[in-house]
């Protein structure tokens, strides 16, 4: 099943839940004392084998500390996870603790399916989380998700390619988007059609467009989930992407789309066919392994030219608790263990991203690979502003819509201005339809 079709199926189930979930309440007091009676918690997550093994180790550690609590793990691959979660919600059989994604948290929270973790503060310690990190899981003053790991958008620079063509590494404390294009042109000319300067943005996610808006003091959505992105910012974004392609700073559209569709290991950054690319800082380890080159994280262009940094913390995922859990206090205690226990952290390391818990980040620093250390340092040192509003209910197809418009612009099927107008209208329509 394609991601678009699968999302449609998920929304169909969720829409049928509105009445029942909005009226649901916790099975017991989230702020009460932990019980001494036998309790079973169900805990679900998505991921591959390494994540499953590490998570199971941590579950066993928690059970040794709380012998009356049994945690039953339920894990799946991403493709089946959301269908399963929506189905269990519909059947009033939701797991107590779940791994939650930023694209979907508003959809579940706004239908009353998730516990406000503030109600469980007696058992859930968030003292070592930056407020900007906590804000990524908050809606209307309620904390529906505790961020597990954090990422930040960055420019990934291939130092080996720059050295090969005798091109200096740019000063990322003051460079602009025009500077990136100019340096990209230099690389492309030196690369002779085999290596390009910039891996074209606008294909994989909407973060780049959001960053450009934030750098100009604007946003994609307001607090009421209205699309407030100015059309001229979207137009300029697509014009920039088109200019990269036309100048040769980026590869031809057909090459760009082919590499983007093939996944991380076949990307221009991973195959050493572009010197610069927009990536999340946490992808440094995987891209270094794939490319076999020396890569460096650079701050985003344009950060010093606007009223505020565009960079922000993006949660890799959240821990959330079902609003229907019969054991919300115990579920919150388990989430607190996952987030705060140093021994558990030394098992999980950065498998779910660089930890959002600042104390935990320092506790595991000595065990990290050099590339993970670099990702951690980037997270610790690069200035950020408040996070954008959580992706509204209905807008989980945002990335797909953006990619389609980028392809249309690159292949000349539409203009940047027309793409901007259509993008804003289409996203707003999706949000409105989900209300």
From TrEMBL:
Which InterPro entries does the record match to this protein? Bact_solute-bd_prot1, SBP
Q: Where is the secretion signal located? A: 1-25
Q: Which domain of life is it from?
A: Bacteria
**Keywords (A to Z) from UniProt:** Signal, Sugar transport, Transport
Stored PANTHER family: ABC TRANSPORTER SUBSTRATE-BINDING PROTEIN YESO-RELATED, ARABINOSE-BINDING PROTEIN-RELATED
Q: What is this protein called?
A: Multiple sugar transport system substrate-binding protein
Q: Which organism is it from?
A: Lentzea albida
């Amino acid at each position: 099943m394609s991601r678009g079709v699968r999302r449609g199926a998920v929304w169909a189930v969720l829409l049928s839940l509105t009445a029942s979930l909005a009226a649901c309440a916790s099975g017991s007091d989230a702020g009460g004392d932990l019980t001494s009676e036998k309790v079973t918690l169900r805990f679900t997550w998505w991921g591959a084998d390494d994540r499953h093994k590490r998570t199971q180790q941590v579950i066993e550690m928690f059970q040794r500390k709380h012998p009356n609590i049994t945690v039953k793990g339920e894990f799946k691959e991403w493709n089946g996870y959301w269908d399963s979660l929506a189905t269990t919600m519909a059947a009033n059989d939701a797991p107590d603790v779940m791994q939650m994604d930023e694209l979907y948290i508003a959809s579940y929270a706004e239908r009353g399916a998730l516990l406000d973790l503030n109600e469980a503060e007696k058992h859930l310690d968030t003292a070592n989380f930056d407020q900007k990190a906590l804000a990524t899981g908050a809606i209307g003053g309620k904390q529906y998700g505790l961020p597990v790991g954090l990422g930040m958008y960055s420019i990934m620079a291939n130092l080996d390619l720059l050295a090969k063509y005798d091109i200096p590494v740019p000063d990322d404390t003051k460079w602009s988007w025009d500077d990136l294009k100019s340096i990209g042109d230099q690389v492309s000319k030196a690369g002779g059609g085999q290596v390009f300067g910039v891996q074209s943005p606008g294909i994989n996610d909407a973060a780049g467009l959001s960053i450009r808006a934030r750098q100009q003091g604007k946003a994609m959505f307001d607090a009421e989930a209205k699309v407030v992105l100015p059309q001229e910012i979207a137009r300029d974004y697509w014009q920039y992407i088109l200019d990269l392609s036309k100048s040769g700073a980026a590869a031809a559209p057909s090459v760009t789309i082919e590499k983007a569709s093939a996944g991380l290991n076949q990307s221009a950054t991973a195959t050493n066919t572009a010197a610069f690319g927009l990536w999340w800082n946490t992808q440094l380890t995987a891209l270094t392994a794939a490319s076999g080159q020396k890569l460096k994280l650079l701050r985003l262009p344009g950060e010093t030219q606007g009223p505020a940094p565009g960079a922000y913390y993006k949660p890799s995922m959240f821990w959330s608790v079902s609003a229907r859990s019969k054991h919300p206090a115990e579920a919150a205690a388990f989430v607190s263990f996952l987030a705060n226990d140093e021994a558990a952290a030394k098992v999980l390391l950065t498998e779910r991203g660089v930890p959002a818990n600042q104390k935990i980040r320092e506790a595991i620093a000595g065990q990290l690979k050099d590339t993970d250390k670099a990702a951690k340092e980037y997270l610790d040192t690069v200035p950020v502003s408040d996070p954008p509003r959580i992706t509204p209910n209905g807008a989980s197809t945002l990335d797909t819509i953006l990619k389609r418009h980028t392809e249309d612009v690159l292949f000349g099927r539409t203009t940047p201005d027309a793409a901007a107008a259509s993008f804003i209208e289409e996203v707003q329509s999706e949000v409105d339809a989900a209300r």
